[in-house]
Amino acid sequence: HGFAALFCRVFGFSEELLDPVLMANMRFQAPRPVDSSLDSSRLAGLLGIKPLPVSEGFERLRAEYSGVPGR
What we know:
By secondary structure, the chain is an all-alpha fold. It has helices spanning 2-11, 41-47, 54-66. 0% of the residues are buried.
């Protein structure tokens, strides 16, 4: 929910559009792990890069998207 809420704030959408739910309450056809987050620290170390914070990534995406004709 935090990821989606941040997206809403950066792109100017109302967070009231979000309907938070617990993964435990979802009825998936296949089993899902409790934690499906991705740890990219090893890859970042191998490549010698530092990933952007999510908020900065969203800000850059918003800036790029605003420059698209017709938007």
